[in-house]
Amino acid sequence: MQAVIGLLVMMPGASYGLETYCDGRQDGAQCFGPLGGTVVLQLMDKALQTERYKFDGKFRVNNLSRNDSAEYKFEISDGINIKEKRALRLTIQAPVSSVRLASECLSQGEKRVSCSSGGGDSPQYSWTLDGHSLTDTELLSVNTETNSITLRQHVSGAVACSVENNVSQVSHKEEVSNCGFIFINCSSNGTQISQWVFAANNTLCIEPTTPPTISTVDHSLLVCAVRAALVVFALIGIAVYFAWKNKNCKKAEGSAYRPEREHQDESVVMVEM
């Protein structure tokens, strides 16, 4: 274990930054440590402790630097006989420090979302929408060179980009809305139209469902005017009817009175005779 012990002697002190763990109990183990941080190497089981070496089988290597990336060989013995020979490779990586998102609308209403990270060796990018992996109905394309994705026209929600390597993982989430496009599927002048168009400038297949506001106002005024005219005509008709009825009643009273007087005159003449 001389190589590992020598490494510990060269880098004593407190732990800085991130900390990773590596199981080095198997020969040829691949271990990763964060630059400026700590790696915990599990080299032995507790059951292998002897009276001479009392420890939990773990070694902590602090304040890691680039120069610590190497292959380390060590031996495990009981102080007299060598029990096992082993090797492990330790790779030091700079951790990811930050993640940023940027989005833009494309000409057909798709939305491109780009992800960039600060620092980090060999970063790997992954994406989610509202907490779930993107599906083919939501995702149009992925560009691994620019670390960007292109979302379909109808997609909106919380888009998260996660950046990770073997020693760190950082993610960032932003709300993304669609670009204001709608899908048109109709027939105009015998031509079938099926495409995405910007809703604010759309002039295709527009069928007004309600008349303009001014027409609605005019129609309401016309209805009110007609109703008012009907009421006026009804009142005039009622007045004419009662006037005609009153006149007929007076005529009827006059006709009934005059014959009585003639009869009375004739009676008087008859008496004189």
From TrEMBL:
Keyword line: Glycoprotein, Membrane, Signal, Transmembrane, Transmembrane helix
Domain Ig-like positions: 95-177
Transmembrane segments: 220-244
InterPro entries: CD2/SLAM_rcpt, Ig-like_dom, Ig-like_fold
Coiled coil: none
Localization in the cell: Membrane
Record GO cellular component, one term: membrane
Signal peptide: 1-17
PANTHER family assigned: SIGNALING LYMPHOCYTIC ACTIVATION MOLECULE
Protein name (record): Down syndrome cell adhesion molecule-like protein Dscam2
Organism of provenance: Dissostichus eleginoides
